[in-house]
Amino acid sequence: MMALSSTKGVVVPVPVLVLAAAAAAIFLYLFVSSPSSSLPTPCSCPTIPPPDTTTPTTPSTRATAKSTGSSTSQRISASKDDIEWVRNQIEANGLHMAENVLRKGINPRTREQQLQDLLQFKGVSHYEGEEAENHTAFPCPGELLVEQHHSYYGEPWAGGRDSFDFLAESTRLTPDSRVLEIGCGTLRVGLHFIRYLNPEHYHCLEKDELSLMAAFRYELPSQGLLHKRPLIIRGQDMEFAKFGNEGMYDLIYSNAVFLHIPDKLVWVGLERLVKRLKPIKGRIFVSHNIKFCSRLGGEACTKKLHGLGLAYVGKHTHDSLLFNHYDIWYEFKRSKI
Ligand SMILES: C[S@@+](CC[C@H](N)C(=O)[O-])C[C@H]1O[C@@H](n2cnc3c(N)ncnc32)[C@H](O)[C@@H]1O
């Protein structure tokens, strides 16, 4: 084999020399042509952090979370920054909120007209085949499809979110909490609890068939909340046995119900529920007024509550930030642990 000898007598074979030269040439080529290989210039630019890929937020909502110093995932009600953001979006899009004029949609109709169309054309799908071939799992009453039930108990429907915000934050609710509502109606408030809580943690006793139909047949399916399996039971006698004995409630509330039912029945309900309320943290919230109690007179009211093992905590008012809505709530807790 041919070899070159150096002056010091080290023998390097020719193929090795050729290989080394080729490697050096390739290295030199890569070094010169690669942009990243250029010599670093001194730079005092701020380093840009990698984008936060954990939550799909827009830059502005990320900034909001930073500026409030709180995690948006923990907050329940709308923050000042949220409200400001809405205001900015309205302004940026040139929307005129103050003008309360009817909109000209493509086909603007009242609920009554929509209902009429639904009846005439057999539902939104305008299904025209034989009824036997109709694969709809359940027929849905037209009045639900046009959302008449959003006005069954007065407006605003959106105020349900306010009530939820207030109650959830007042009781420091977590998804693990257990909640009972008395008279949930068409789920104006309940929907928000169902969405927030773990499956099966929301219970409700409601007497009205049409409202229950609206809840099961329209609201839960349309909001994608069937998987939350709320326990909603038809009844009007403050009978809670069907809810089982498992777990105690962190919150029991009743929105616009106690003022409509006989005082005696309210007391029956409270008596049955005291032991189902968590001893220290548990709260009962009643909206509008507590005439079932105050009608007895201040002292007698307190005494009767105490006899049941309840104590009145106080009155709260809650202003809506978004929906022109105003709530009054009365808070109770267990007096005997
Ligand atoms: C004014 S609505 C309020 C509904 C709901 N809480 C809301 O805020 O939209 C009163 C509700 O209480 C229900 N209700 C009245 N008496 C009841 C009773 N004894 N037991 C259970 N629900 C009752 C009614 O059927 C109705 O759904």
From TrEMBL:
Biased composition (Low complexity): 54-68
The Methyltransferase type domain, residue ranges: 180-279
Region (Disordered): 46-79
Classification via Pfam families: Methyltransf_12 (PF08242)
SUPFAM superfamilies: S-adenosyl-L-methionine-dependent methyltransferases
InterPro entries from the UniProt entry: Methyltransf_12, SAM-dependent_MTases_sf
Membrane-spanning ranges: none
Top-rank taxon, per record: Eukaryota
CDD domains: AdoMet_MTases
PANTHER family listed in its UniProt record: S-ADENOSYL-L-METHIONINE-DEPENDENT METHYLTRANSFERASES SUPERFAMILY PROTEIN
Protein name: OLC1v1000687C1
Organism whose genome encodes this protein: Oldenlandia corymbosa var. corymbosa
Phylogenetic classification of the source organism: Eukaryota, Viridiplantae, Streptophyta, Embryophyta, Tracheophyta
